[in-house]
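Hey, resending since the last one bounced:
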Amino acid sequence: MPVLKAQLVFVLVAAAVAGATAPLADPPPLPPVTAAQTAIRPGDTWEAALGRVGVDRDTALAILGRLRPQVDLRRLRPRERLYLARAWDGRVLGLTYRRSPIERFEVRPRGGEWTVERVLTPVETRVATVAGAVDGSLFAAMDRLGESPLLTAMVVKIFESNFDFAADSLPGDRFRLLVEKLYAQGQFVGYGTVLIAQYQSAGRRRLTGVAFELGGRTAYYDAEGRSVQKMFLRAPLDFTRVTSGYSHARRHPILGGVRPHLAIDYGAPVGTPVRAVADGVVVFAGWDDGNGITVTLRHARGYETMYNHLSRLATGVRAGTRITQRQVIGYVGSTGLSTGPHLDYRVARQGRFVNPLKEKFIPGDPIPADERGAFLQ
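The structure tokens again:
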């Protein structure tokens, strides 16, 4: 027994000694990844944004070389984001370029090369009702409802051939619409199609626009199936105000005396885009004495339009150029005989100036007879 006891003690002691001298367990590994992110700022460049997340110049050039075929690198927009993942030893493991809540680009190193994958988040479409009253402007009314300026622009575009929101909107005007709203992972990401829009002008007519697709293109019609869009827009500027109306006897602010003012003046900041009110051809583009920098367009059915006192012409606008409706042809300025930034807009029919706000322009085609049943449904 004494021998066995001694042997047992030896074994226990040996085990204890072995445990004390055994190598310690490996320490917890360093975090395998570190992350950095940045939001795109106004006027940002890719090089500056990548530099803020710690990407060196050579790696940045390699990444941009792979992104270039899929992304317009000149169109970085504020609030887009970059996310960079890096190993603890400094190696770049990947870059995520998030353009919006529904679109991102994943850039990864594989086999000595960079790969790019475009990833789209599934989008859910919900139809929502938006309704309100104008008190100040349609823009302000939409803003009070928590809606984006984009929705305001969509509504204005539907009725722009029939209603000048700068000249004709009045307090008490009402609007209502059914619009598709898009959601990604429960987050609102944008608007789809405005399905139906109505605008009730205070004490006057009601405008109705119903979306209907013909030949792969969505257009808007009133409740009787007549086209809402016309050959001419009601105004060449978005979200502006009339500062001087059409008159045969107006006191001239510079030359003095009473003179005809056969135009509509729209006050707007310098640089505001000026859009062609209809398809046409440029007759004249350049300097024209008191009119300053001007553009004259010739349209169908004997119409011409003039856009005076511009700060500059849009790229490519010159005599003989074909122009499409809503194309930007120049930018608001104060050139020539002008007391401040504004657009002097004129319309002539068969060589005689007419009041743009009272002219009855030709409507587009109505719903075809063979589509009328589907439209009414």
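Confidence is low (pLDDT under 50) at residues 1-24.

Sorry for the duplicate.
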